[in-house]
Amino acid sequence: MELPILNREQTPAGGCSKSACGTTTDQMTHLPEAIREKVHNHPCYSEEAHHHYARMHVAVAPACNIQCHYCNRKYDCANESRPGVVSELLSPTQAAKKVLAVASQIPQMTVLGVAGPGDPLANPERTFETFEEIAAKAPDIKLCLSTNGLNLPDNVDRIAALNVDHVTITINCVDPEVGAEIYPWIFWNNRRIRGAKGAKILIRQQQKGLEMLVERGILVKVNSVMIPGVNDAHLKEVSKIVKQKGAFLHNVMPLIAEAEHGTFYGVMGQRSPTASDLQALQDDCSGDMNMMRHCRQCRADAVGLLGEDRGQEFTMDKIEHMEIDFEAAMVKRKQVHDGIEAMRAERKTAQETAQETAPEAILPQGCRPALLAVASKGSGLVNEHFGHAREFLIYEASPAEVRFMGARKVPAYCTGAMECGDGETALDVILDTLSDCEGVISAKVGIDPWAQLEAAGIQPYGEYAMEPIEDAVRAVYGEMIKSGRLESTDAMISQAG
Predict the structure, then answer these.
(1) Which domains can be identified in the chain, with CATH numbers?
(2) Average pLDDT over residues 273-290
(3) Total-model pTM
(4) Burial letters for 113-126: b for 16+ Cβ neighbours within 10 Å, e otherwise?
């Protein structure tokens, strides 16, 4: 299926006179109805859905058949969110029990994924037994898996038979020489194959598996790890090729390389990309591909909304003592999902009405865009205290649109309900992380951080608590224009000349 290419054409001059004509909620409107139906409540495939719906991963796949220089599955910290790490390995039966417990307690959970800690298709029996149990007991939950692709072609028919209609393939290169710098070896036909020869086999299997999935109508997301100096200049080519082969979404993620993780890259001092490095590459790739920007690089046992991890609430020792009435849970789940959809529809109608009727929504053309950070704990609302935020959502506002650019993790400034104000080091990190933003919007900001944000040139806004995020960003951007903080691009060009 050929999908339209996003962002290829620039907004025509004067063709978009309202501030909200290109909001991030428009991300899916160009897609066929059948595709929109598959992703409308999938938090990993839909940027808008990730504000409302949750996912969970079950760690049933311990073995892996390749070695990546950025991976070390032996290291784990329960408070750390990083792909490939888990606190508890499960059997398929335990995993099914955990899924029912989570679905009962977190009714907005719509997606079950198997993503490790090894490769799901290096452990096919454990992975497919888990899917079979969940499909029988909780048919309203979407099934996903994430694979390196080496064993994918041999398993596509079984994936399709189980109605697993979302698959993520990690593809870091299409050139074996580049691959040799990322993968020291693969395990293939009972042999360990090293260097470019192994990478060539891996790439061949990935591309073949991608084509086979697309032929069967299965949505494919491609993950790529951005490794500065290794594959960053190469990923634009990867993006073009996977798009040509029918991938639905491309997720370029930053390398996580810390020495304490014990990975090759971490120990060798390989640097990770900066937020601006990542954004620039995502923008370069977006000319050919629908890009994912809301990824949180989740653990292989993550539970909850993207950006939160409630896994410690659902360890097996706790689940053993839970009484689960899944019939009652199914009724509650439907009520919650209906409520979410009603809210989304109401919000969309209100937004469209405002665009058509509110003259104040019309912003002057020509002003430069601005980055704004938002504190939110879900539901698409400004509903997080600045001091409690562990991540900020970054939006780019312009006269034409409000565009989601990504999420940035930070240490919380407050360490408890009454322990705010002792986090000077955390505040320094937050100020550095948001240094390219011109404002931060949160439900509330304390006096001390307010002053330091202003001193750093980041204007705090605390008057949009419980407002929809995009409405708040649009309103703040309008305030910035009225206050004269945003010179027009014409003025900037004139000054430069």
Answers:
(1) 26-320 (3.20.20.70), 364-488 (3.30.420.130)
(2) 87
(3) 0.82
(4) bbbbbbbbbbbbeb
